[in-house]
Design a protein that fits this description.
Number of strands: 33
Structural class: mainly beta
CATH class of the largest domain: Mainly Beta
CATH topology of the largest domain: Jelly Rolls
Number of domains: 3
Distance between the termini: 35 Å
Radius of gyration: 24 Å
Low-confidence stretches: 1-19, 88-94, 99-107, 122-142, 392-399
Largest sheet: 10 strands, mixed
Number of helices: 2
CATH architecture of the largest domain: Sandwich
């Protein structure tokens, strides 16, 4: 991701698995910075983090082309860090990466707005990030998301057929793509709603349909809603088992595919991959703790070349929020607010970007031929699917706020992410702080100047150290100039 700002600091992290530790290479582009010489105790450019080497940091080496590099070994775990340019004051001064550029919400965490990297036991690529991306992506005042479509999966029994379509027809006449070996069905055995969640169930069973007998069944859902641009959030717990392939993804409404919902509605005019495919989340049981996002376009002949992902330790034991932010310029993929891939091709044309037309959602569990003989049944559990429409302040020029206002957070109760909205009558210094019932500060979400307009910020139920907080009642205070308002919110787990 690149942004043309006055200061551009590009960060690339390449991680390699090595013995009991992981080899981590930090590379920082200083070509547009004035590098400050070290003072004997501190190097010129270095990486510093409390659980890496404390404030003293680890020295980086000048590559001679404007980049500086450090290779070190870190044990698996979560690390916070910053880059520093020369020595100034201990925790402050122009040497540290700007706090204004590292804002909570996927770019950074903690009191000092540190960067965060999760190191696993397997090869991992983290990046590339740039200093400006945090400022523009996480601190943008121009974008507001309004929910336009959702399914909370309340009730019990069959899925809502006003919102979802069971795609069951074998597109090749006798099989699905990618050498998958399942039948998709519309039976309650393979998809149903109970206890506030959707269950998509993959089973080992002999089942005959369309003249073909297969040994596995599952479900593949198409949304009866299609849209262009916005934010998609899906809170889900993933299945287990080598050979299982669950996915939360999107296809162009115009795809020509036998048996697909929008094909049956007369929209099917374009073959894959010219219709475009957006994989919000893919997971393979053979790589249990890794989730992936990808784009399939004509420029890659449909191949998986535009891809990124991250390791999460609880993919199948806890719910996680998988998010896509889709604008006319780029797509950003994250899990629980932590970004792992951004797609913004250059050049952007019909070959690299078939994404200026409506797409619809799909959720399914496919079965690969590598399925283990011991497999019997597994499920993907989905708490909610939410689609938000993006609107900009430029489009709201006639509706600038006429008074200060703090809107009740939504959803409320929530788990694990909620959105706090507020309206600024004028340019103001804004402070948004979350407190527990004893009045202790839990998290400082916003502490900066903002331009007037309609604003929003998300809280992912973590404290200032990036640690999850417990279930309970919390208070948040929004202060802008002389305006101050406090509201309650309830976290349920």
């Amino acid at each position: 991701m690149e942004f043309k700002l006055n200061t551009v600091l590009k960060i690339y992290l390449v991680l390699f698995c090595f013995s009991n530790a992981t080899q981590v290479t930090f590379i920082v582009d200083m070509s547009e910075e004035t590098v400050v010489a070290g003072d004997g105790n501190y190097p010129a450019v270095y990486v510093s983090g409390a659980n890496i080497n404390g404030p003293g940091g680890l020295a980086m080496t000048d590559n001679g082309d404007g980049t500086w590099e450090l290779t070190t070994q870190l044990s698996p775990g979560d690390y916070t860090y910053k880059f520093r340019n020369g020595y100034y004051d201990y925790w402050d001064g122009p040497g540290w990466e700007s706090d204004n550029g590292l804002i909570e919400g996927g770019c950074a965490v903690g009191d000092y707005f540190d960067r965060q990297v999760s190191v696993g036991n397997s090869d991992l690529v983290e990046g590339g990030f740039c200093f400006g991306s945090c400022d523009e992506l996480c601190n943008s005042d121009s974008i507001e998301y309004i929910m336009v479509w959702s399914d909370e999966f309340d009730g019990s029994g069959a899925i809502d057929d006003a919102k979802w379509f069971h795609q069951t027809q074998l597109p090749n006449g006798n099989s699905w793509y990618n050498n998958e070996i399942q039948h998709y069905t519309d039976r309650l055995d393979n998809s149903y709603v109970s206890d506030g969640t959707l269950k998509i169930v993959a089973k080992k069973e002999t089942y005959t349909d369309q003249g073909q007998t297969k040994e596995y069944t599952s479900a593949r859902l198409n949304s009866k809603y299609a849209f262009t641009y916005g934010r998609v959030e899906v809170r889900a717990k993933l299945p287990e088992g080598v050979g299982t392939w669950p996915a939360i993804w999107m296809l162009g409404q115009n795809i020509s595919e036998p048996g697909a919902y929008w094909q049956t509605q007369g929209y099917g005019t374009t073959s894959w991959p010219y219709c475009g495919e957006i994989d919000i989340m893919e997971h393979w049981g053979a790589n249990q703790n890794y989730v992936q996002s990808a784009l399939h376009t004509p420029s890659s002949y449909g191949g998986t070349s535009n891809v990124g992902g991250q390791y999460i330790s609880n993919a199948s034991t806890q719910f996680n929020v998988y998010t896509l932010e889709w604008t006319p310029e780029q797509m950003i993929f994250s899990v629980n607010g932590y970004v792992h891939y951004t797609y913004n091709p250059n050049p952007q044309n019909s070959e690299t970007w078939p994404f200026d037309a409506p797409q619809y959602l799909l959720m399914n569990i496919a079965i690969e031929s590598s399925i283990t003989s011991s497999f019997t049944e597994t499920e993907m559990e989905v708490d909610y699917v939410r689609v938000y429409e993006a609107s900009t302040l430029s489009n709201q020029a006639e509706t600038v706020p006429v008074y200060f206002n703090a809107v009740q957070n939504f959803p409320n109760p929530f788990n694990p992410i909620t959105t706090l909205k507020y309206d600024l009558l004028e340019d103001s210094f804004v402070d948004i702080t979350i407190y527990d019932m004893l009045g202790n500060v839990v998290n400082n979400l916003v502490n900066r100047n903002q331009r007037r307009g309609y604003k929003s910020v998300q809280w992912n139920a973590t404290n200032n150290q990036g640690q999850p907080v417990s279930t309970g009642l919390y208070f948040y205070t929004i202060q802008a100039g002389d305006f101050i308002q406090t509201k309650k919110m309830l976290l349920l787990k």
